Amino acid sequence: MVKDRGHPNRLGIWGWFGGGSWGPDRYLYSLHRVTGLGLLLYFLLHIVVTSSRALGQGAWEESMARVSGPVFMLGEYLVFVAFAFHAINGVRLLFAELGYGIGKPIEPIYPYRTCLDDQRPWALGALVLIAALIVVGALDFFVWH
Amino acid sequence: MSNGNLPEQIVFRIRRFSPGRDKEPVWKEYRVAYEAGMTVLDGLWRIKESIDPTLAWRASCRMGVCGSCGMLINGSAMLGCNTQISELASSVVSVAPLPNFPIVRDLVPDLQLLFDDHAALSPYIIRADSAEQENPTGEYYQTSKEMETYLQFTYCIKCACCMAACPTCATDALYSGPMALTQAHRYNTDTRDDGFEVRKQVLAGEAGPWRCHFAGECSRVCPKGVDPAKAIQFMKRQLVADALGLRKKRPLAPLLKKPEGIQRRPGIAEAPEPTVG
Hints:
The complex is a heterodimer. Chain A is mainly α. Chain A is built from 5 helices and no strands. Chain A has helices at residues 14-17, 24-50, 57-66, 70-96, 115-144. The longest helix of chain A has 30 residues, at 115-144. By secondary structure, chain B is α+β, with helices and mostly antiparallel strands. Helix content of chain B is 31%, strand content 14%. The radius of gyration of chain B is 23 Å and the shape is globular. At the A-B interface, helix 1, helix 2 and helix 5 of A face strand 6, helix 7, helix 10 and helix 11 of B.
């Protein structure tokens, strides 16, 4: 064992995005984590903002005035984008992680076929659905609103 | 000699690290004449023989069987011996040690963590009839259909490419990683094995498959087509079914009785005495 004197060489969070040449599923994984963290951050901020109601109507109206305007509208839209991705990709992952849509064990004969090949149509379908939601969301936020 | 679009010389960018001398790994460049059929491992040998004898890496079989020469080649975890320079389609070949493992020196990762995680998941047949296992009187019977449920996962050569490519391994030192989990699933699925409850002690905790979020990189880089991501997702299904009390109890593979009334042909020697045990 040379653990103590060797270089640790662990990629860390950088490994979610860089450190190598990765496949598309890894970027979906990274995006899923980032959007999840973004939604969690929004949720915490949401609690802080709405809790001002407990301090009276004046405090509530002041908080609402502070979080209105085009910058916050864009922020809310980004929260919607994160939600659209995280929710739909999450449903895909839920099924995949329970062993559905990933094929069966096969004899590995070159060129190897993996569960990623079985999952590809589902991932593409999810991405199309997410894109459609994002477009409808953009229309609702910025055009129809 | 040139081959297609490849130039006569290949530039090897190699991430070097000497534990006593360097604080951080450094990139060094070497120019090597290209020859048709040259693998990355061939290039490393050429550098060691004619340019820099201090370059260190680990390799043995040169035919993608031993799993020793896993490296990060142009950003992907691959076997050096199994990777033709022509398939990289680049005149610059970057070679780094597998990430997520401590570097012993240059391109040599310390794989002890991998072997520890593997051993912790009891990667062998576990049965109650230990006397039969220690002194077998016959073979356990298994149909070919039963074998197909785990055969794919037996081809693992422990090269650690999957662990290097896994983004969860990149952040979580407690996670067992795709190699060990695939081997645990391989035995959990084997009808000769009855060790699910033993392995569950590890699998239900932080080291288990729940840290996997299906990035799939392990399956993409596996040089033997083992598909660890598939094994891990099936393992999750098995664990969920077990937690809900829905896991099907399969009958254990029975002992195949030796055929009776058959006589050895004359002139065929007896099998030699066991040398172990």
